[in-house]
Amino acid sequence: MNRALWTSIIGIAAAQALKVTVSPREHGGGWDWRRLAGTGGMPSSHSAGVASLATYLALRKGVSSTSFAIAMMLGMIVMYDAMGIRRQTGLIATEVNEMEDTVAKLAEQHPTLIHEKREKELEERLGHLPAEVAAGAMLGMLTGMLSFITEPRRKSVRWLSFIPKSLSRLL
Q1: Which of 15, 28, 89, 140 has its CB 3.0 to 4.6 Å from that of 11, i.e. a possible disulfide?
Q2: Alpha-carbon distance 114 to 90, whole Å?
Q3: Taking Cα atoms as reference points, which of 47, 44, 46, 72 lies closest to residue 58?
């Protein structure tokens, strides 16, 4: 079993499950089960996944390990993308959907104007606000720590590898 992979998957699943309960607070009403498979919203499941992976690897392999470095870089890219490119794409989708509604109203007012309504609106919840990314990252760090703590011990791991050996003996 690849515990690092499962830790990341559990981090993603936990974030998606929380979206079901957080969504009613944002929009009123009951739980929205569609949020289990949806993108965007609070907390970011992508951030939770990469943060849980990086945290687990930092504790298991040490912060000077190549595994941690790769996970950390992946995490920074994913979180930047969620707040930047994906969020902007969602904002553009909102504008396009509003423009579609405006054109449809104009077509109703002017019968000579031919307008074919789209069957489905563009998905608007694509990216994340910084708070949503931060919440996902915190959930991921908690998941990574819990995974490390509950793991059966095989051998001692020097997880504070960035501290010189002479100082780490004092800890």
Answers
A1: 140
A2: 28
A3: 72
Token digits of residue 91? 């904002």
Four-residue CA torsion sign, 135, 42, 76, 161: positive
The CA-based dihedral angle spanning residues 72, 14, 86, 29, taken in that order and rounded to the nearest 10 degrees: -160
pLDDT in tens, 120-164: 776 666 667 788 889 999 999 999 999 999 988 765 555 555 555
DSSP-assigned letter for residue 36: G
Spatial distance between the Cα atoms of 41 and 169, rounded to a whole number of angstroms: 44
CB burial of residue 134 (10 Å; 0-12, 13-18, 19+): middle
pLDDT of 49 reads 96
Token match 């929205």: residue?
A: 32
Average pLDDT over the chain, rounded to an integer: 79
pLDDT tens for each residue of 82-106 = 877 766 776 777 777 778 778 777 7
- CA–CA gap between residue 81 and residue 126 (Å, rounded): 11
